[in-house]
Amino acid sequence: MSRLLGREDDLPRIIDRIVATYDEVPKINHLGERPLPAREAALEILDGLKEILYPGYFGRRHITAVNVRYHIGDRIYQVYRMLAEQIYRSMLHECRRTAERQCEHCEDLAAEAAMAFLQRVPGVQRLLEEDVQAALEGDPAARSLDEVIFSYPGVEAITVYRVAHELWELKVPLLPRIMTEIAHGATGIDIHPGARIGRRFFIDHGTGVVIGETCEIGNNVKIYQGVTLGAMSFPKDESGRLIRGLKRHPTIEDDVTIYSGATLLGGETVVGRASTIGGNVWLTHSVPPNSIVMTEEPALVVAEKRRPGANGA
Fold first, then answer.
1. pTM value?
2. How would you classify residue 32: left for phi > 0, otherwise alpha for psi between -120 and 50, otherwise beta?
3. Average pLDDT value for the chain
4. pLDDT digits (tens, 9 = 90+) for 203-235
5. Pick the CATH number of 31-187 from 3.30.420.40, 3.30.56.10, 1.10.3130.10, 3.40.50.300
6. CATH assignment of 195-296?
7. Helical (H) or strand (E) element with 197
């Protein structure tokens, strides 16, 4: 017998020890409960929605004006069934988490939410077309809309955000966060589904961008990689628990550009219309419209390298 397989005699004792800890850590296990929404299903829903939102680009490629209703109609039925199921699971989880809520009508509510979301898809498509156009117009390296749709991580993250935000607005728990975290893992761009983002939004390059839950972003805003729109602090109540629901993240008005590495913090921070925030700026207060905010150029020291063996070394 292989020495590797021979050590399997130890596994029953290890299994017993691991299983015994589940009673000690009840907050991080879901044993015996109703099923949670599945990350794999959320990813499949997003793939289906990308096929619907960008017909001919993803999924079935040979779609024409003649067969589009058949192919997209079939996909919409599939997405509806998967989405309704995952919304239902999300609602069951919320009922378990909050004792005051009941589950008798969760199936009906999930079906209604899934249908209400699909009714919003045309509006999402219109927003995405403007986002894609903004990327093409905002990046001189972009050669075509096709290139932008296929290869820009900012467009990928914004697409998922636009979908998740509509579910967030419909009060669907948990599932919108799962979706935006899928996009975060794929692109390095972290957009909370609760953020409010206007038209023609462009994230250039994108890695390391963070946009918090209570951000409000206007129209024609462009931000670069490494930008954080975050919170200053997290106020707590008398029991030391976080106070939720407050405005914690900045407001960015129309036609603002924020360059790479900038950090903007606080719910009272407002960047006025048509302002430019330079790279690596740290901003925790409001600036008026048409402002330019930048750091002073650092003093650089350029010295000659010491040659090996010089000065007796």
1. 0.89
2. left
3. 91
4. 999 999 999 999 999 999 999 999 999 998 777
5. 1.10.3130.10
6. 2.160.10.10
7. strand 196-197
